[in-house]
Design goal:
single chain, 713 residues, alpha/beta, 15 strands, 10% strand
């Protein structure tokens, strides 16, 4: 039984196909018509109650099946009408009698109006909306992918959530592409309905006159009833399906179901409701107008609008209340954590604050990370007025700890009179490393490569990635997304910039105290390892150098147990000297090759730039020994040639989602990295030993040793 149910759709489609061939008695035709109407009504209700189109992703296929079902019914009813002297069941006769009501001409006119309205208004509109939605959805895919990457980088989502969102974007593109074609089926169904109506009417009259079934008037009345009834039982389900098509393709900007959205958005405009009621009341002065009906509607609208207006005013304002109050240590105002049940602190002057000598010592403290804000940006930070920056930082800190194995220290948030009202700056250990500007009441729209149409806005540069952008008004957000722009709210812009700056400088925040804390955390699970390694073979200073170097190159230190084990093995068993920190790091990177491979691998392959063998031999010969070990001393000509080649080759990664990677031998890796780090800090240099064996390496470019004479010529 269960297996039979799994093939129910297949059996249903096969049955529909048989309707095109096998004649059905009128009783079964009535059953098929009832099922068709019920199914169409069910589909319409579903499209009105879903929150997003993908909740009903089978709609394009269902559209084809229901259309085929209607065509099968039309063939059966046409066969019965022409062969049974206009008789094709009770439902068709009942609909025909109801519409005609004894007047054939008026009935046919009303029927044609219904058919043309469904064809020209509903079907045509749904077809156009589907076509536009499909095109704009495909155009917006790159921007949506960038938005997902930005959320992933800022810690708002994890890898699994990013994967699900990418799959959703792909499903949306497939869905709207299918809908673009499926609406053509609805259009063809409407045309076929008009053709069937003509065949039933004209063919029936001719057959009736030839068979001598009565006078011309009697024959025309008989077949008119059958034609109109047959047309209506086909057009009503078709109208429901066309309406459902329009509903589902216009759900892109909805927040809830259609009922929820209409209720929410209408009740949010009490002034418009009251104005409409006043206008209805004014219409009563026109002679001949139904005064009682107009007054009833007018009073209802004015009363309803007034009630909604009062209710909105009485609701507590979520962002209301006084501004932040607290001690002001100098020119910058801190935003401390709110205390439960605490009373607001009295505002004190700067002179009063520094009368206490202990407060002066606070000036000597250097915060690991600071953010300072202009006056206009305070609402993004201050929780007492609805600011959510602290919550977003907590999410980012948790995500970064899961990914990298390092807990970002507390971030001091201050307002500053030294900044413009819309500016903010980020400081690492007391020194400014980044600055940006936000417009709180606007949205940031990232410019796509080929926009459908330019949108008005204030041109700017996105602070985290340097993408050309523009600040747009909130009411232009939807149209900007349709044109292919990626639209980001100001808080997300701020968090993304902060996250990128923290990632770039995370190695500077790895203090000795944090190293001790991390080691103690490993000791809980592996006490024997820590007792053997510390302090006989490894000390905290050496471990700090190792972890700092790994984090600077973007390698996670989450697997600290493996890092310590590898370092211990390299020192105790292979006799690697402790002073050779570079050698230790290369051994550790080899032990972490699965982690490193995952960072830069996409679908089982890694796209890289490689070094020509002649260039690598030349660089090996240029290694020189200094006080702190070996370093690469290339001639200015060779160095300039390398920089120029890398600049050209890196453009190949622009169209890829993978970070740029240069592949070298293990001997040259660290020296080549230090050579190019000052020019390209975001380029990763890997060795062959750091890549898993099951990964396919694809070289998309090579760096060569150019002949200086040829280059000069």
């Amino acid at each position: 039984m269960k297996k039979l149910l799994s093939y129910s759709v297949v059996l249903f489609v096969l049955t529909v196909i048989l309707l095109l061939i096998i004649p059905l008695p009128t009783a079964l035709v009535d059953v098929a018509i009832i099922l068709n109407m019920s199914l169409s009504l069910m589909i319409l209700v579903i499209t009105m109650t879903i929150r997003e189109p993908l909740e009903f992703a089978i709609f394009p296929s269902l559209l084809l099946i229901t259309t085929l079902f209607r065509l099968g019914i039309n063939v059966s009813t046409t066969r019965n009408i022409l062969s049974n002297s206009g008789s094709s069941g009770q439902i068709i006769k009942a609909f025909g009698d109801f519409i005609l009501q004894g007047n054939v001409v008026v009935g046919l006119v009303i029927y044609l109006i219904i058919v043309l309205m469904q064809f020209l208004v509903i079907t045509k509109g749904a077809e156009r909306v589907s076509e536009v939605a499909a095109r704009f959805t495909l155009d917006a895919m790159p921007g949506k992918q960038m938005a997902i990457d930005a959320d992933l980088n800022s810690g708002l989502i994890d890898e699994q959530q990013a994967k699900l969102r990418r799959e959703k974007i792909q499903r949306e593109a497939d869905f709207y592409g299918s809908m673009d074609g499926a609406t053509k089926i609805v259009k063809g169904d409407s045309i076929m309905s008009l053709i069937t109506t003509g065949i039933n009417l004209i063919g029936g009259i001719i057959i009736g006159m030839v068979q001598g079934s009565g006078t011309l008037g009697e024959v025309a009345t008989t077949y008119s009833i059958a034609t109109v009834g047959d047309g209506l039982v086909g057009q009503i389900p078709s109208l429901l399906i066309s309406t459902a098509t329009g509903m589902i393709v216009t759900r892109a900007v909805a927040e809830g179901s259609l009922n929820e959205d209409i209720s929410k958005q209408f009740t949010a405009q009490p002034t418009a409701i009251m104005i409409s009621g006043v206008v209805m009341a004014v219409l009563t002065v026109i002679p001949g107008m139904p005064v009682i009906q107009l007054l009833i509607v007018s009073v209802g609208l004015i009363s309803g609008g007034y009630y909604l207006s009062r209710r909105i005013q009485e609701e507590p304002a979520l962002a209301g209340g006084a501004g932040f109050s607290g001690p002001t240590p100098g020119p910058a105002q801190d935003f401390p954590e709110p205390e439960a049940g605490g009373e607001p602190l009295r505002q004190v002057t700067e002179e009063e604050y520094y009368k206490d000598v202990n407060n002066v010592y606070n000036l000597l403290t250097v915060e690991p990370i600071e953010m300072e804000f202009g006056y206009s940006l305070i609402p993004l930070v201050d929780e007492s007025v609805g600011g959510r920056l602290i919550n977003r930082i907590v999410i980012f800190r948790r995500q970064y700890a899961q990914d990298m194995g390092f807990v970002i220290p507390s971030i001091r948030l201050r307002d500053s009179s030294g900044l413009n009202t819309n500016q903010y700056c980020i400081k690492i250990k007391g020194e400014e490393v980044a600055k940006g500007e936000l417009l709180v009441d606007y949205y940031l729209a990232l410019d796509p490569e080929n926009p459908e149409k330019e949108i008005d806005g204030i041109e700017t540069i996105e602070p985290a990635y340097g993408i050309p952008s523009r600040w747009i008004r909130p009411e232009d957000r939807e149209i900007a997304e349709i044109y292919g722009y990626t639209v980001i709210d100001p808080l997300s812009v701020l968090v993304t910039h902060l996250s990128e700056v923290v990632k770039q400088h995370a190695h500077e925040l790895l203090t000795r105290q944090e190293i001790i804390h991390l080691v103690e955390n490993v000791k809980k699970n592996s006490p024997e390892l820590i007792e053997e390694a510390f302090p006989n073979y490894i000390n905290y200073s050496l471990l700090q150098k190792i972890l700092t170097s790994l984090m600077k190159e973007g390698v996670p230190i989450k697997d600290l147990e493996t890092i310590i084990e590898t370092a211990l093995e390299s020192i105790s068993e292979t006799g690697l000297p402790i002073k050779d920190v570079d050698g230790l790091i290369e051994h550790i990177r080899t032990a972490l090759k699965r982690t490193i491979t995952r960072l830069y691998c996409e679908d089982g392959s890694m796209k890289v730039l490689t070094l020509d063998s002649e260039l690598e031999r030349t660089m090996v010969g240029c290694l020189s020994k200094g006080e702190r070990g070996y370093y690469l001393a290339l001639s200015p000509d060779v160095l300039q040639s390398l920089i120029n080649q890398i600049t050209v080759q890196l453009k190949k990664f622009n169209s890829l989602s993978q970070n740029p990677v240069i592949l070298t031998s293990q001997v040259m890796r660290v020296h080549f990295y230090r050579l190019i780090d000052q020019f390209y800090p975001n380029v990763r240099v890997l060795s062959f030993n750091e890549i898993s064996n099951n990964i396919q390496i694809q070289s998309i470019g090579s760096l060569t040793l150019e002949n200086p004479e040829k280059r000069g010529a």
